[in-house]
């Protein structure tokens, strides 16, 4: 796995590089600027980019803008975004865009090495990785949704863990149930949210997106 890191915090950037190299992963470039990041993507053609949301010069959304441009240039590039705190709009947009080969983690998650590496491999393999703390914070903001009210407490539990990007086996392990039970709950979720198998959209992503949207505060 070839990796480019774009992070303006020197200690975190070098720490990430050391950690990944210790795992026999190929860190082909590290940078602290969005323009240098894009140059590295063009030059090294990485499999994964780890990108800070806020980068110089304004420390607003330069990292996200650079990540979007990198994906435009290399549509197969997996991107794992790091953020110091929950940015709700980006978390929701991540899922609404299809959430393929994309992840969003809080920086504190990097210190939990196994969880961080699991998220990295998940996005590299074409999946989604949403920080559970992001999901938890989004769930504290409720807004009525009639269809979602049909879900049982256990179905809501399953949907909340789905929002982290976990597959059925990992959901079963997290909730201490069988994989068959998870499959049944997900089938019920799709039925109660009126998501037919013939829908062109990814039903899993659509279900999670509706759940996260329901947790945002009313305008």
Automatic annotation (TrEMBL):
Residues 2-122 form the Response regulatory domain. Residues 144-211 form the HTH luxR-type domain. InterPro entries: CheY-like_superfamily, NreC/VraR/RcsB-like_REC, Sig_transdc_resp-reg_C-effctor, Sig_transdc_resp-reg_receiver, Tscrpt_reg_LuxR_C, WalR-like, WH-like_DNA-bd_sf. Keywords: DNA-binding, Phosphoprotein, Transcription, Transcription regulation. The keyword Amino-acid biosynthesis does not apply. Gene3D superfamilies: 3.40.50.2300, Winged helix-like DNA-binding domain superfamily/Winged helix DNA-binding domain (1.10.10.10). Pfam families: GerE (PF00196), Response_reg (PF00072). The modification 4-aspartylphosphate is found at residue 52. This is Response regulator transcription factor. The lineage of its organism: Bacteria, Bacillati, Actinomycetota, Actinomycetes, Streptosporangiales.
């Amino acid at each position: 796995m070839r990796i480019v890191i774009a992070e303006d915090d020197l200690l975190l950037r070098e720490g990430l590089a050391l950690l990944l190299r210790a795992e026999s992963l190929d860190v082909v470039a590290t940078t602290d600027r969005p323009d240098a990041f894009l140059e590295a993507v063009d030059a090294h053609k990485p499999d994964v980019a780890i990108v800070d949301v806020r980068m110089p010069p304004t420390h607003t959304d330069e990292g996200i803008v650079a990540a979007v441009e990198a994906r435009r240039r290399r549509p197969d590039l997996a991107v794992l975004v790091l953020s110091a705190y929950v940015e709700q709009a980006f978390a929701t947009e991540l899922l609404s865009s299809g959430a393929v080969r994309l992840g969003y983690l809080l920086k504190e998650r990097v210190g939990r090495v196994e969880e961080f590496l699991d998220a990295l491999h998940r996005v590299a393999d074409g999946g989604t990785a949403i920080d559970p703390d992001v999901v938890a914070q989004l769930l504290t903001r409720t807004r009525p949704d009639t269809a979602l009210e049909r879900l049982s407490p256990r179905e809501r539990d399953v949907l909340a863990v789905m929002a982290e990007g976990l597959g059925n086996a990992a959901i079963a392990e997290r909730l201490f149930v069988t994989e068959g039970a998870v499959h049944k709950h997900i089938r019920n979720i799709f039925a109660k949210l009126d998501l037919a198998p013939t829908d062109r959209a990814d039903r899993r992503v659509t279900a999670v997106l509706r759940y996260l949207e329901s947790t945002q505060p009313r305008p």
